[in-house]
Design goal:
By secondary structure, the protein is an alpha/beta fold. It is built from 17 helices and eleven strands. A hairpin with a 4-residue loop joins β10 and β11. The protein is globular. Magnesium ion binds next to α7.
């Protein structure tokens, strides 16, 4: 009998974190919510902590932490600030770190988990987009395991178990097409944040839902795949698949294509990242192929959704360009959500920022963070 694995759930109040806590609750003999951490939602993290009995509770935002600390009576020890969260992640009792944080904020805890040699269930694509080679080098040195949770990358990770790495020809990422798939170029000029937030198959946070609508989410996933699986830029393809049943595919040299299929439910890739190489039951994710009647596939439309091309541009340029793509997009999306930007200007602003960037090859972490900071300012000039 082995004791349950201690899981630190980061981004616990978000959709990935909540799904992770459901997986843990379904397997009390296998997993324990050792720590739950959120950015700033004090009331929500307190009630989640009570429900799952976490020993440690964290808020990355120090102001939010101080507010909660005034009324904190436990159970669980309260931690505040990014440094304290990184120390928590690296604690010797932690076995698995679920990084369900959105955006560039996921980089610091991912690096902390990598340095401490943990199993990292990585839902934060931005840390790989910004600093993939750095994260991988640390994992190689410490023995940390990087298991993707992003559904496409989990699918590729699973399909890769079917053959030798040397025999992989390419990977094919599927894209739902997002909420605006059917819009014409003219209609895209007038979509509102509410239009773009209606995702057809996945229920996710606002930022990633806008990224799905612009296909920039897929652009980020192209960069993520490049670094997670050490693929040549020419060995990555994207196909639009509106039903989100085939989560991605790997094509081997002999032409065999291995696809991973399941109902779109993030609990599956999260649980697999926790249990790999084992596969556990406990998920009520019935699969009835006949009920879907048909699965559609089509080439992405780069004229209407130029954001996708930016991912391929970023992996061709390499170095700091991924960080620039990500940072410029975070700022542009925030402007769009605030009603200050037309939808097509998101991709246009990111593209212009990337064109103005002087790529640093093989950057170290400070150079990545410099590129991130530069892009956040430059994109505002490009959008002005
Ligand atoms: Mg995804």
């Amino acid at each position: 009998v082995t004791s349950p694995k201690n899981v630190a759930v980061l981004g616990a109040t978000g959709s990935i974190g909540r799904a992770g806590l459901e997986v843990i609750a379904a397997h009390p003999d296998r997993f324990r919510a050792w720590a739950v951490v959120a950015q700033s939602r004090g009331t929500e993290i307190a009630s989640l902590a009570r429900a799952c009995g976490a020993l440690h509770v964290g808020l990355a935002d120090e102001v939010a932490h101080d507010a909660l600390a005034r009324e904190w009576r436990g159970p669980g020890k309260l931690h505040g600030g990014t440094d304290a969260i990184c120390a928590l992640v690296a604690h010797p009792e932690v076995d698995v770190v679920l990084v369900g944080v959105a955006g560039a904020a996921g980089l610091a805890p991912t690096l902390a988990a990598a340095r401490a040699g943990k199993r990292i269930a990585l839902a934060n694509k931005e840390s790989m987009v910004m600093a993939g080679p750095i994260v991988r080098a640390i994992c190689r040195a410490t023995g940390a395991e990087l298991i993707p949770v992003d559904s496409e990358h989990s699918a590729i990770f699973q399909a890769l178990q079917c053959g030798r790495r040397a025999d992989v020809k390419k990977v094919i990422l599927t894209a739902s097409g997002g909420a605006l798939k059917a819009k014409t170029q003219a209609e895209l000029e007038h979509v509102t944040p509410a239009d773009a937030l209606k995702h057809p198959t996945w229920s996710m946070g606002a930022k990633i839902t806008i990224d799905s609508a612009s296909l920039i989410n897929k652009a980020l996933e192209v960069v993520e795949a490049r670094w997670l699986f050490d693929l040549e830029p020419t060995a990555i393809d994207v196909v639009v698949h509106p039903q989100s049943i085939v989560h991605s595919m790997v094509e081997f040299q002999d032409g065999a294509v291995i696809a991973q299929m399941s109902r779109p439910d993030m609990k599956l890739p999260i649980q697999y990242a926790f249990s790999h190489p084992e596969r556990l039951g406990g998920l009520d994710v019935g699969f009835d192929l006949a009920a879907y009647r048909r699965l559609d596939f089509e080439a992405p439309d780069l004229a209407r959704f130029p954001g996708l091309g930016l991912g391929f541009e970023a992996i061709r340029a390499g170095g700091t360009m991924g960080a620039v793509l990500n940072a410029a997009n975070e700022v542009a999306v925030a402007r769009f959500l605030a009603g200050a930007l037309r939808f097509p200007r998101i991709a246009a602003g990111v593209e212009k920022t990337m064109a103005r960037h002087r790529t640093v090859r093989d950057p170290d972490l400070p150079q990545v963070l410099d590129a991130d900071a530069w892009a956040r300012e430059e994109v505002l000039r490009c959008l002005a």
